[in-house]
Each structure stands twice: as C-alpha cells, then as structure tokens.
Amino acid sequence: MKKTNPFRNRDVISIRDFTKQEILDVLKEAERFHKGAVPHEPLKSRMMASCFFESSTRTRLSFESAMQKLGGRVIGFSDAKATSTSKGESLSDTMRIVSNYADVIVLRHFADGAARLAAQVSDKPVINAGDGANQHPTQTLIDLYTIQKTQKKIDEIHIAFVGDLKYGRTVHSLVSALTNFSVRLYFVAPPSLQIPKEPLQEVKARQIKFSQHEKIEEIISRVDVLYMTRIQQERFTDNIEYQRVKGTYRLTPESLKRGKKTLCILHPLPRVTEISPEIDAMPQAHYFQQASYGLYVRQAILSLVLS
Ligand code: CP
Fold this sequence. Notes:
This protein is of the alpha/beta class and 307 residues long. 34% of the residues lie in helices and 15% in strands. Helix 2 crosses helix 10, helix 3 crosses helix 4 (114-121) and helix 6 packs parallel to helix 7 (197-205). Phosphoric acid mono(formamide)ester binds at residues 56-59, 130, 139, 268-270.
C-alpha cells in the first residue's frame, strides 16, 4: 500500500505541531534535495504567494528560489507599504484574498500569532516564515539539518544558545524542537534577555537538563554547538534597555581557544557584531553553510505540502 503524505495541504505554523518522526522525515526529504535525487519540476503550474510584512533576505529568497527550482511560480510582496495594508486592510482580509490566487502562502509578519490567524482564514496552506518573537519553524528545520550534518546526530549533543533569548524566535522554535531529543541545553544571555517562561516550561516538562549563564566562558569548553543570535533591536520597546545590552557578546578567535576542536558555531543570521568576521574562515564556523541548506529544507517543505 502506498504511504500517505501527512504534510499534504498542511499549515506549517509552529514546530510544536510536528512530532519527532515528522521532523526527521522533513530532514530526510531535505537530504534528497541536497543530493539532487528528486523528480524534475514536481510543482510545475503550482503558485506560491510570498507575503513579507517584515524584512528578510534568507527566508524570502530561499523560499522563492526553492519554489522556482521545483518548477512552480511565485507572486507576492516584500514591502507591505505597497499593498492595501497601507489603506487599512486587515491581515485576515489580505490573507483571505491572497489564498484565491495561490496554492500556498508563505507569510512573515511582525506580530506574534499572525501565521496562525492567517491559517484560520485561508483555505490554502500557510507556512510561517517568522511571526514576531514567536516562532520560525522552517529556520528550525534548517538548524536541525545543519546539526545533523555536522554532528552526525541530534541526540546527546550539548548546545548553548547565546544572545537575545527573549525576542529570538529562532531560539524559541529550536528549543521546542530539541525537547524531542536527548540533549543538554545552556542558555547564555543578560538577565533581561533570558529564555522566556514558555519554552523553559517545555524543557522542564520533558526533563531536559539545562542551565542559565551570563558569560560564554562559563560554557565554551562543554558544548558541541554554539547557537549565536543577534540582539533584536527592532523588538525593544525601550531604547535605553537596548543600549544597555547591545554588544554584550562578541565571539573572537581568542574566545574559542577553550572550546572543543569540533565545536560547531551556528547563527540564523543576520549577524551584527556578535561573531567577529575573523571567525568566518575557521573550521568551527558553519553559519554560512547553515544558510545555504535553507534552499533544500524549503524545497522539501514546499514539495511535501503541495505534492
Ligand atoms: N534567518 C532568517 O530568518 O533570516 P532573514 O531574516 O534574512 O530571512
């Protein structure tokens, strides 16, 4: 009997909606795209709407490239000011309309919960390309794919999250996903930007070992993966608070001296000052490779949802 595809026509809103097996299945599909072992133009004549209400380089362009490489076509916008939102149209009306013109909607929005709202009014699948400080599920699948590639496993790794753990949606998604695995977590942040209650409760509920720190030096010798993040200036309501914490972390070749030889540095990007460019050429730097995997992971997701 032919196996049914559980992703067909499904919304991709939160990584919490995926079982461990489903996560592993997407990573396996991404590997097929990475190896080029896929049918020619499987999404020919399918249409993707790329709706970006917030700025993006990697997510938008890799989704659009993925859809076109699959033989599909793309409509959309990257400047919400050029849409009828500027005339006062609501997100739910906009999404309801766009769902008439496309087979799938990829949505990035500045408001937490925007993707879930869009999915409620759209009769076409919605893929969350990042909603406020909430979730970024496709980035998480890229992060897991990169961890699997560099560590040859996900279980048993020690991973440190460094930087803006309060507003970083990629952190919230990845922490949730990792609670499906047997991992050790370290949260490194200024006290005002520590990991919020909700993801921490998930960690505790799954009895994942974790600790909280202020300094990278406290954990650098213990970890396999260092997940660096940018302090998200655009999400601060208080500029004085941003000025107080900006530039707290800056990884340099010197700071890696106590790290494992096999240490893997990841970053969802964009970076600002938290990783010195001198690190880019070091074997520990995997963040550009991580961004390149976005294409394969997004090809996998689009083909699973639309095929
Ligand atoms: N990682 C990520 O979401 O990057 P962009 O904001 O450039 O899409």
